[in-house]
Amino acid sequence: MPSFSWRVWPGLVFVLLPNATAAEETSLLDGWHEIWFFRFVLNLLGYSTIIVPGYLLISYFRRTNYLEKGSGICYPVVKACVFGSEDKTSLLDSGSASSRTDGDSGSSFKQAVKLTFCAAGLQASYLTWGVLQERVMTRSYGSTTPEEGEERFTDSQFLVFMNRILALTVAGLWCLMFKQPRHGAPMYKYSFASLSNIMSSWCQYEALKFISFPTQVLAKASKVIPVMLMGKIVSQKSYEYWEYFTALLISVGVSMFLLSSSEDKHPSTVTTFSGIIILVGYIVFDSFTSNWQDNLFKYKMSSVQMMFGVNMFSCLFTVGSLLEQGAFFDSLAFMMRHSEFAFHAVLLSVCSACGQLFIFYTIN
């Protein structure tokens, strides 16, 4: 018997050790995936698999002077994506200018009604969106069978994809139904605003795991100074001293509110250091997005064309990263298991798309 045990034991070790090692690696990977910074880097690596080849292609077409030498079926696509069709202008085209002039025409009563409609639409869209955002990211969804426990949805990137795919659809249908200005901007330039936009949205969702929703809303209200500073860097804008002073007063007021605390504060509403870092990331990315979009409006385009271009690249980046991480089908499976989550995710996307349309209509 001792001899038999001595011979069998190495074989058992050889068979069992790979399984134990695999289980340990799986546990380690799951542990790393719980860290928000790891997920942040993983998302960036996924986006880089699209950005790097795109950058190399654009550099190649520009270096070989493809605009003059190119021909064939791919020529119009390459020209639209890399070079564009028209030069920059300081203003929108006459069609866009006339639409803004038309917006200013009419009686004061009609303008007041339109403004009230825009304000009500924005409030309804983003208040509903905010409530759903907090519900999805901070609470669990019940199981479909008694044997299963409750689950919490954790993939912020999938929610960003859901928002962007619906916004892309709405903008595309709008462009097909209504006449738009002739598009002149190189399509690749939308990718800069798109990347910063999806990162700011990711930070916005992810921050709710570490801070309360009211804290996030108040912090977003204090991003006036970062937006102004980013405007000086990206767009070389200049501001009056009273504008800086007003922005400073807003930021100080919000900071005083955030720093005030009570001893009976619920643990779930405590703001953590990770939450502050993610919130700062949101403010930086969002500040860049608005200023870069403002620069793009120097080309001839409408607001809906801007919406379509940015959301197109956002869908490309997010779905590519989700597929590479294997998270896309996991999120779809979560939706299949929890119909309530599917309803919330779709309604969240509808509110986001409607909010964008109300913003553009208000600006117009």
Automatic annotation (TrEMBL):
Compartment list: Membrane
Membrane topology, from the record: Multi-pass membrane protein
Family from the record: Belongs to the nucleotide-sugar transporter family. SLC35B subfamily.
One GO term describing the cellular component: endoplasmic reticulum membrane
Keyword Phosphoprotein listed: no
Protein's name in the database: Adenosine 3'-phospho 5'-phosphosulfate transporter 1
Pfam families documented for this protein: UAA
GO MF terms, alphabetically ordered: 3'-phosphoadenosine 5'-phosphosulfate transmembrane transporter activity
Listed transmembrane segments: 38-61, 241-260, 266-285, 306-329, 341-363
Primary localization: membrane
Source domain of life: Eukaryota
Source organism of this protein record: Oryzias javanicus
Coiled-coil regions listed in the entry: none
Signal peptide residue numbers: 1-23
UniProt entry keywords in alphabetical sequence: Membrane, Signal, Transmembrane, Transmembrane helix, Transport
